[in-house]
Every structure is written in C-alpha cells, then in structure tokens.
Amino acid sequence: MPRRSLAVLLTALVVAGAVACSRADPASEYATAIAGIGDVRDIVPATGTLVASGGAEIRAPRAGVVGEVLVEEGQVVRAGQVLARLISPTRVAARDEAAANVQAAEASLREARIALRGAEEKLNRSRTLHARDFVSAAAVRNGEAEVERARASIERVSSEGQAARARLRLTSAEGQDSDIIAPLDGVVTLAAVRVGQQVSPDDERPLFQTGQDIRALTLEIMVSEADLPRVTANSRVRFSVDAYPGVQEDATLVSIGAAPIREGRFVSYRGLATVNNRAEVLKPGMSASVQIIRADARNTLRIPARATYFMPDDYVSPVAPDVLEQLKREYHGDMQAVRVGARGREFRRMIQEGRRVVFVLEKSRPARREVRIGAETDDFVEIIEGLREGDVVITGKVGGPSVQPA
After folding, report:
1. What's the predicted TM-score (pTM) here?
2. CA distance to 1, 55, 158, 274, per residue, from 185 (Å)
3. How far apart are CA 15 and CA 328, in angstroms?
4. Which of 15, 164, 205, 367 is most buried by a 10 A CB count?
C-alpha cells in the first residue's frame, strides 16, 4: 500500500476513535462551569432629593409681586397661617368698586320701595274716589298700572343688588388669593422668597417648604427606565450628600412608582426611601448621590446564575409518593407533564427557602445538590452552602438551550 494511502487510513481511524469516545462519555453533552471565588455585585446608580416627611411645597396662588414675608426658616407654622402676601392694588380697587355698587343697589331698592308705597296709596285714594263717582275708572286703571311698574322696579333692583353682592364676595375672595398660606402644620424648612420678587404658580422652585419632622426624612429617588428591572423591593439603598461627600448614609426603600416621569426622551420612575435623621445633620432639599444595591457580595463563592435553572431532561423532582401519584392522575400518566409539575413545586419551595437546586458532574453524570444562596445578579449567584470551590456545575447542554426554566 502506498505510504500516502496508509497515512490517510490511520488519520481516519484516529478521528473515528475520538468521536466514538466522545459519544461514550456522557459528560461531553453538558456545558459546565467551575464554582470559584469572585464578586457578586449589582449596584444601580441614581440621583435623589431629601424631603421632610409629611411636608408641603408651597407656591404662589397667582402671579404677582411679594409685598411682605411673614415667616423665617425654622419657624413653626400652623395650617392656614399666612406666610407671605402679594401686592394687589387693582384687586383692592375692584373690591372697593364692588362695595360701592352694593351700596348703590341698596339705595335704589329703598327708593323703589318708597315709590311702591306711594303708588299703592295713590291707587287706594283713586278707588275710594271712584266709588263716590269723583274719578273715572280710567284713573283707577292707571293707578293699578303704576303699582305694577313699582313692583317690577323692586324686583329689578333686588336682582341688581344680588349681583352686586355676589361681585363683592368674588372680589373679596380674589383678594384672599394674595395671601400665601401654609396648608399643614409643620416647620418651615425653606423660605426662598423676598420682598419685591416676581412670583407665579408656574415657578420651577417652591417659595416655601414645610416639614412635619426633619428627624424622619424621605429620599425621593429618580430611577431610569433602563435600570428599573434591576430594582426590587429587597434592594438596599445607600446615599451621600454634597455637604458630606465621604459619609455614606442608609435608607430603606418603601416603593417604586408606576407613573413615568418624562424629561425630553428620557424616562424615569420615582422611588421613595425612608431616612433616619435623628441627629438632624441632613437637611430637606439636599441632593443625594444614590446607590440602589441589588447585590454586593465580594470575594465569595459563586457560580453562573444559569446553573440554577438547568435540569436534566429525565429529572423528576423529589416529591412524596402520594404527591407523585396525584400528579400522575392529574396529567393522565403523561410523565413529561408530571416532571414539569413536580419541578414547579420544587422550584417554588426553593425560592421561599432561599435555596436552589443545581447539578454537578460526579463520575461524568449529573448529581443533584441543594444549595443556599445569598446575593444574586443576572450573571452570578453567591453560594453560602452546598458547594465547594472547584465543584463543576452544569449550566446547560452542548448545542442546546443553556437555560431550562422549571
């Protein structure tokens, strides 16, 4: 046999042997990763503002010029108390004019009533004289018409008086809009207003801020739309303010709003966190650099997160025999459906207990392990117990989907 043909034959035999070995080795069908030491961190950056709990932002009720400021920062105020007054010369003139119109209407009404009494007396005399044939019937009819005109005049003047009084009430109420009033009891935490300042309800900044108790502040957090999926109710919050840049404060996340806040093409959502400020070092209105911490485990044992979702095709979750029989009856003996049902039960239980099921390679075969987890991100999971460094975990199948949700 020629030397070249012999070489080709030997190469083919080697390749065939390698393929046969790979098919014979069950471990070759799995994608794996090694449990190792590393960080499991997911921190969402955000911005925030400190506000006093139960406080209020107070703006001008209408456009105008500040004529008087009656309170200072730190002062305790009551609901309804006047904080500042706006200059309203035209409204004063309008109120005076409305009051004069009311007085004129009342005078006209008095005159109309006098005219009615005179017309009624004249009519009575005409009727008496007509009965004695001293005046004609036409004179009586004229007297009756004059009385009717007097009564109509009273109705007209009465209506004019009601309109004048309504106008006076309206101008008086509009005059009250010149007062900037505290809506709630509290402490003035911001008084950003001065005499002579032009103000409007549309001003970007409030004129006053009040808070009920600055020892319990609220941190308003703006979370970008892209980061929203990474924020959960269990996320921890840390922040610092410009006044104390080296000091990290803790806050407790209480809610993430569902209403989008749009600024141009950027969308964010408003979160709220409570802050313990018993030392009263932090002040309402301070801006904050915020870290929303989903996970922050360092130098810890970790595995890829997809390993916690993998399960072999023929895996049946360990359930009590009676539960297994119940599942078989429920799915009419369809074992694939039974396995899925059992996996769902197991997965829910593990989630509640802070545990997961992973599979490690032992003697080239998948072996089930229950592990207790700590911090987790979309990429990695911290392992607190159940694995050791160097264990080989299965993350998926070679050439197939790497994640098989239960």
Report:
1. 0.50
2. 106, 9, 44, 21
3. 45
4. 164
- Output the CA–CA distances (angstroms, integers) from residue 356 to 7, 160, 302, 351, in the order listed: 52, 83, 13, 7
| Residue for token pair 């197991």 | 346
Write out the E strands in 277-347. 287-304
Q: CA 261, CA 268: separation in Å to the nearest integer?
A: 5
Q: CA-CA distance, 337 to 341, in Å (whole number)?
A: 6
The per-residue pLDDT for range 232-286, each reduced to its tens digit, is 888 999 999 999 988 999 999 999 988 889 888 889 999 999 999 988 889 888 9
Tokens found for residue 196: 């002579």
Written as six digits, the tokens of 18 are 């390698």
Are the C-beta atoms of 219 and 83 separated by less than 8 Å? no
More confident residue, 52 or 378: 378
Decide if 102 contacts 164 (C-beta within 8 A): yes
- In the numeric block, which tokens belong to residue 211? 């808070």
- Decide: 191 and 68 in contact? Cβ < 8 Å: no
Which pair of structure tokens corresponds to residue 362? 């032992």
CA distances from 268 to 46, 47, 81, 210 (A): 10, 11, 36, 26
Q: Kindly give, in sequence order, each residue whose CB lies less than 8 Å from that of residue 342, ignoring residues fewer than 6 positions away.
A: 316, 317, 319, 323, 324, 327
* CB burial of residue 284 (10 Å; 0-12, 13-18, 19+): buried
Contacts 24+ apart (CB under 8 A), 334-339: 339/314, 339/315
Alpha helices in 137-207 (DSSP H): 137-176
